[in-house]
Design brief:
Length: 316
């Protein structure tokens, strides 16, 4: 089968011809239809989970995926052959990922039946970004009418978070880089957009919201200093979360701001909630780009360089 894989840590991803995996007890063989690209995928190539989980090489990349159950192993009861599923395929050993024509996925993984109202390509864009957005908002626990600044709003997580927050009556301030992005974010429910390229973000937010905002989701600031500077925009008693693990708990405490570093907790239940929102028409999937397996290495390079726009999915 064809797959995007690496031969060793920090290797350059390439299209390889690898054996079709064989189903094991407690697992399913999935015929992959689409795989979503996330920064965490190449971070695994860099060894972010080295020492925490076993790895195998060639390491097939990919966490998010959607496809059809082709075969179930002994003991599998949640799914049957022919079921359309989606979710996070990650499991031990790392290296049996979704960037392939076939993948082995444990029944116990964060996977569930796919939404019926969208394509497999759209479903593959949902799992990591959707669950992250959902849980970020749950943790902030903002009320209707509160203001939320999303720094990094135009990406997958930001696009989902904007919609979910707006649906809850929260006024979203979305950062954008151009007029087209501003239009897209407003269509997704953003009450305000701020072009970070036209002037410093902090200056613009302070001018428009001198009393401060109630919440901050920061997916852009890669340094503690940058995140701390943005905390000055948040009212005392508010909340701020970073997905980049740069928060200083002592600084947050000194400013009477809740939150800090955020990590997604994946589960089938969380995915089922997203499926309900999608199938009811309350949540649109922000799929920006569809590519082939052959085009995946270039797309991964763009993600590494921070040049990816919106959500990219590999259609297999």
């Amino acid at each position: 089968m064809k797959a995007i894989a690496v031969a060793k840590f920090k290797d350059k991803p390439s299209l390889m011809e690898l054996p079709k995996p064989a189903v094991r007890p407690g697992t399913m063989l999935i015929k992959v239809v689409a795989a979503g690209i996330n920064p965490f995928d190449w971070k695994m190539v860099d060894g972010i989970l080295d020492g925490a989980m076993p790895h195998q090489f060639p390491l097939i990349m990919g966490v998010d995926g959607a496809g059809v159950v082709e075969e179930v192993g002994e003991g599998v009861t949640r799914f049957k052959q022919g079921d359309k599923i989606y979710g996070q395929f990650i499991h031990a050993p790392i290296g049996e990922g979704s960037y392939a024509q076939y993948a082995i996925v444990p029944e116990s993984a964060a996977v569930t039946k796919a939404p019926v109202s969208i394509s497999a390509a759209e479903a593959a864009a949902v799992p990591t970004a959707g669950m992250t957005a959902q849980q970020l908002l749950d943790k902030l626990n903002l009320a209707k009418g509160d203001t939320l600044l999303i720094n990094g709003a135009t990406g997958g997580v930001g696009s989902f978070a904007t919609q979910l927050a707006a649906a809850a009556g929260i006024k979203v301030i979305a950062t954008v880089g151009d007029d087209a992005a501003a239009d897209r974010m407003k269509k997704l429910g953003a009450a305000y957009t701020i072009n970070y390229k036209s002037a410093p973000l902090i200056d613009q937010v302070k001018k428009e919201f001198p009393q401060g905002v109630n919440g901050l989701i920061d997916m852009v600031s890669h340094t503690t200093a940058g995140f701390n500077a943005n905390l000055g925009l948040v009212k005392a008693g508010g909340g701020a979360l970073t997905t980049l693990f740069v928060a200083d708990d002592d600084v947050l405490k000194s400013k009477n701001i809740a939150g800090g570093n955020f990590e997604t907790k994946s589960s089938p239940d969380a995915l089922d909630k997203l499926s309900i929102a999608i199938d009811s028409g309350d949540l649109a999937v922000p799929l920006e780009t569809r590519i082939t397996l052959e085009e995946a290495p270039a797309a991964i390079a763009l993600s590494r360089d921070g040049q990816a726009k919106g959500k990219t999915v590999i259609v297999i």
